[in-house]
UniProtKB/TrEMBL annotation:
PROSITE patterns: NHL (PS51125)
Entries under InterPro entries matching the protein: 6-blade_b-propeller_TolB-like (IPR011042), NHL_repeat (IPR001258), Pan_app (IPR003609)
Annotated source species: Rotaria magnacalcarata
Pfam families for this protein: NHL, PAN_1
Stretches assigned to coiled coil: none
Protein name: Apple domain-containing protein
Signal sequence region: 1-18
Alphabetically ordered keywords of this record: Repeat, Signal
Ranges occupied by NHL repeats: 195-238, 260-290
Domain called Apple: residue spans: 45-85
Record bears the keyword DNA-binding: no
Source superkingdom: Eukaryota
């Protein structure tokens, strides 16, 4: 079996550092072709490639290419984004076709778990993860020497479990190492009432009357603009009742500074101060944290008089 080694000097953009790495290919004898399991594994097909060396160079300069096949009669070079063992090398109908594939050696993985810069660093064999450490690429795990497909290696010891946990593209399921699968999130089919009583309005602490807007803080506490009760209710997560923090607890509406008139928007700042859009009173009011229901509130925008 023929071995071709190509060395590259890759410059990293925006840095003065350079990383030299080798791409070592093995070539089969003539009369062979590569079968791939999925159409997406075929990275590209190039025609008018006039030598095996040329096809090898095409693969070597493309970091995603791990395997290629080439027919010297048709001058067609096909490059694949999977390793040779992830497909099958089989006999070809053409006697002038051969397969080349990247050979994994220990030296190619010498950077594993060493620092990198995820915004600029690239490598054929390793992936620079968000924690700025070189890790194995997707669906591969480090076996102590090279990054290898989980299908081709048995992970039965604690050390291999730890290697799997270090690889951000894989997940340990308790017995083996598996690729991380992106989850398609969906809304629940049914809702859960977290404030008020379904289909029943009222002004008691456990009820709301046409709530119009809300704000939520980092603790999951809701601040609800209870519009027809002319108040803002603070509703702790899981609580059966709300607490009035702006307006009158009994739902009385008005234009004085201790009242609201159809509150339709609310926001709360980091200090717990409540800002209320008091629609029918044409104003925005600030209700300071811990304020009582006396007329000591601050008018932020609008006028103190009744709307006309």
């Amino acid at each position: 079996m023929l071995i071709i080694t190509i060395a590259f000097l890759q410059s990293f953009i925006l840095t003065t550092n350079q990383q030299q790495y080798q791409v070592q290919f093995k070539l089969t004898s003539f009369g062979m072709t590569f079968q791939y399991p999925n159409i997406s594994d075929l990275y590209s097909v190039q025609s008018n490639v006039f030598s095996t060396i040329h096809c090898t160079m095409v693969c070597s300069i493309e970091p995603e290419c791990q395997t290629f096949d080439y027919d010297i009669s048709s001058n067609v070079c096909r490059i694949f984004s999977i390793w040779s063992y992830q497909g099958t090398i089989v006999a070809s109908t053409s006697s002038t076709s051969l397969v080349g594939f990247v050979e994994q050696t220990i030296g190619l993985y010498s950077l594993y778990r060493k620092p990198c810069n995820s915004s600029i660093d690239t490598n054929r064999y390793l992936l620079c993860t968000s924690d700025n450490l070189w890790s194995c690429r997707a669906q591969l795990v480090y076996n102590g020497s090279v990054c290898q497909s989980d299908v081709a290696y048995s992970y039965t010891t604690v050390s291999y479990q730890q290697e799997c946990l270090q690889n951000h593209t894989m997940v340990w399921n308790g017995t083996s190492c598996s690729p991380v699968v992106a989850t398609s999130l969906k809304w629940n089919a049914t809702g859960i009432t977290v404030a008020g009583v379904t289909a029943i309005s009222g002004s008691t602490p456990d009820k709301l009357y046409q709530p119009w807007g809300l704000s939520i803080d980092s603790n999951g506490t809701l601040y609800i603009a209870d519009s027809h009760n002319c108040r803002v209710q603070k509703w702790l997560r899981g609580a059966p009742n709300g607490t009035t923090v702006a307006g009158q607890p009994n739902g009385t509406c008005g234009y004085g500074l201790s009242f609201l008139s159809t509150a339709q928007g609310v926001t709360v700042d980091a200090n717990g101060n409540v800002y209320v859009v008091d629609t029918n009173a044409n104003r925005v009011q600030l209700w300071s944290y811990g304020a009582s229901f006396e007329p000591k509130k601050d008018l932020i925008l609008g006028t103190r008089s009744d709307p006309f």
